[in-house]
C-alpha cells in the first residue's frame, strides 16, 4: 500500500465528518464509512501482531452476526460510528506543532534544571509536566519529557521518572477534553465536560498528592546540579511556561464558549478549534513556509503513527454497533440480572474487571469501553446514572492502561527506557493504579449519596 494512502484516507475520514456539519451533501456518512474502511485496509499490514488478531476477530465475528446483505451493509455503515472521537484523535495533535515550534519544552527543561534537588521534586515536576502537556500532546509528550530528564544527574533515578511520567499522563484521562477517553463518555452518555472536569481534576490533585507523599518517604538527594545547555533565565522560563498555560486554558474556555453559542457538540468543536488554533499560533510564531513544513511532517510522520489506535477504534465502534443490533443490551441486562447487579455502585467494579482483565492479555480498553458505553448508555436500568457510569468507565480505563503490559503507554515507556513492560506495569504501577481506582470509586460513591 502506497504510504500516502494511509494519511490521506485518515484525513479524508476526519475532514469529511467535520465538513458534513457545515456543507450538506448526499451520502456523507457513507463516505466517512468508506474512508474508514480504507484506513483499516491501508494500515492493517503495518500493525503489530496482536492488533491484527484483534481486528480480524472482531471483523469476522461482527460480520457473522448477520450475514445477510442488509447485515453487511449495516456493518459497513457502522464503521463511522466513532467518527466524532476519531476526529479528536486525528486533529488535536496539531496543537503540538506550535508547542514544539515555540520551544516551550525547552523552558520546562530550564525549570527542571533549576528547581529539582530531591527525588520527590523530580517526581512532582515530571508528573505535573506529563499530565499538563500530555493532556494536549497526548502520548507523544512522554519520549520528549524522558529525554529532557535523561541527564547524568537524573539517570540513577530512572524508576522515579518512569512512575512519574506514566502516572501523571494517565490522570489526564479523567479531565482532559482532548483525550479520546473523555470524548467517548461524552459521546455516549448524557453528561457534559463541565460535570466531569471538576471531579476528574479533584481526583488528579488527590492522587498527585498521594504519589508525592509516597516518594517523599523514600526521598534521596540528587548528587549534582543539572547542566543547563542554554542561557535562558529561570524567570524567562517561568514566564513562557505560564504563557503556555494561559494559551491552553484560553483555548479550552473558547471551546466551551462556542459550545454554549452554537448547536455543535463539544466533540465537533474540539478538532475544529485545534485546526484553527494550530494554524494561527504557528503563523504567529513563525512563517507560512514553516507552517507548511510542519504540516507536512504531521501528515507524513504523525498521522501514519496513529494506525494502531485508529484501526482498533474504528472496528470497535462497528463491532459494538453490531452487538447492539443483535441484542447486546438484552444480553448485558440478563447478565446483570443473573449476577443480581441492579445498582450502579455494584456495576462499576464489574466494569473495571471487564476492562482490565482483557487488557492484561492484549485487548485494548478502547474496545471494551466502546462496547460497554454503547450498550449501557441505551440501558433503561441505568438511565439516571450516566454521570457515575462515565466516571466508572474512566476509572476502569486508567486501571487497565496503567496495569497492562500491553498498553501503548507501558510499551512506549519500555521502549524508551529499555526496561520490561511487565516490570513497569506490575512492579512500578499496579498498586498505584489500584489506589487510583479505589479513590475514584470512593468519590463516585460519595457523589451518589450527596447528589
Automatic annotation (TrEMBL):
The keyword Transmembrane applies. The keyword Transmembrane helix applies. Keywords: Membrane, Transmembrane, Transmembrane helix. The chain crosses the membrane at residues 21-47, 53-72, 84-102, 122-148, 169-189, 195-214, 241-258, 264-285, 306-325, 331-354, 361-382, 394-416, 428-450. This is Citrate transporter-like domain-containing protein. It comes from Planomicrobium stackebrandtii.
Amino acid at each position: 500500500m502506497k504510504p500516502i494512502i494511509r494519511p490521506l484516507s485518515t484525513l479524508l475520514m476526519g475532514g469529511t465528518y467535520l465538513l458534513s456539519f457545515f456543507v450538506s451533501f448526499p451520502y456523507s456518512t457513507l463516505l466517512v464509512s468508506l474512508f474508514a474502511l480504507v484506513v483499516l485496509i491501508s494500515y492493517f499490514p503495518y500493525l503489530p501482531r496482536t492488533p491484527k488478531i484483534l481486528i480480524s476477530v472482531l471483523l469476522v465475528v461482527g460480520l457473522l452476526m448477520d450475514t445477510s446483505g442488509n447485515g453487511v451493509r449495516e456493518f459497513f455503515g457502522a464503521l463511522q460510528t466513532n467518527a466524532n472521537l476519531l476526529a479528536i484523535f486525528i486533529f488535536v495533535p496539531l496543537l503540538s506543532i506550535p508547542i514544539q515550534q515555540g520551544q516551550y519544552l525547552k523552558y520546562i527543561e530550564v525549570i527542571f534544571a533549576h528547581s529539582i534537588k530531591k527525588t520527590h521534586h523530580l517526581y512532582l515536576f515530571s508528573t505535573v509536566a506529563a499530565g499538563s502537556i500530555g493532556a494536549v500532546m497526548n502520548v507523544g509528550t512522554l519520549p520528549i519529557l524522558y529525554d529532557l530528564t535523561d541527564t547524568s544527574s537524573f539517570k540513577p533515578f530512572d524508576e522515579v521518572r518512569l512512575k512519574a511520567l506514566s502516572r501523571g499522563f494517565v490522570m489526564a484521562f479523567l479531565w482532559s477534553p482532548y483525550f479520546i477517553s473523555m470524548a467517548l463518555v461524552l459521546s455516549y452518555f448524557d453528561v457534559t465536560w463541565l460535570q466531569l472536569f471538576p471531579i476528574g481534576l479533584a481526583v488528579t490533585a488527590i492522587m498527585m498528592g498521594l504519589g508525592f507523599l509516597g516518594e517523599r518517604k523514600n526521598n534521596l538527594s540528587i548528587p549534582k546540579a543539572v547542566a543547563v545547555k542554554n542561557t535562558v533565565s529561570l524567570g524567562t522560563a517561568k514566564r513562557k511556561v505560564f504563557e503556555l498555560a494561559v494559551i491552553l486554558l484560553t483555548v479550552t474556555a473558547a471551546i466551551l464558549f462556542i459550545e454554549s453559542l452554537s448547536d455543535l457538540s463539544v466533540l465537533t468543536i474540539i478538532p475544529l478549534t485545534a485546526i484553527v488554533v494550530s494554524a494561527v499560533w504557528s503563523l504567529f510564531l513563525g512563517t507560512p513556509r514553516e507552517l507548511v513544513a510542519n504540516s507536512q511532517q504531521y501528515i507524513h510522520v504523525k498521522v501514519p503513527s496513529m494506525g494502531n489506535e485508529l484501526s482498533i477504534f474504528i472496528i470497535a465502534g462497528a463491532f459494538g454497533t453490531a452487538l447492539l443490533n443483535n441484542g447486546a443490551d438484552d444480553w448485558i441486562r440478563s447478565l446483570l440480572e443473573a449476577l443480581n447487579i441492579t445498582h450502579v455502585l455494584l456495576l462499576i467494579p464489574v466494569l473495571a474487571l471487564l476492562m482490565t482483565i482483557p487488557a492484561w492479555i492484549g485487548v485494548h480498553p478502547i474496545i471494551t469501553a466502546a462496547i460497554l458505553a454503547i450498550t449501557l448508555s441505551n440501558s433503561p436500568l441505568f438511565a439516571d446514572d450516566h454521570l457515575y457510569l462515565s466516571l466508572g468507565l474512566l476509572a476502569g480505563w486508567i486501571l487497565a492502561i496503567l496495569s497492562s503490559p500491553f498498553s501503548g503507554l507501558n510499551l512506549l515507556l519500555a521502549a524508551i527506557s529499555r526496561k520490561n513492560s511487565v516490570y513497569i506495569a506490575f512492579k512500578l504501577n499496579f498498586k498505584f493504579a489500584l489506589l487510583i481506582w479505589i479513590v475514584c470509586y470512593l468519590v463516585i460513591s460519595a457523589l451518589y449519596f450527596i447528589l
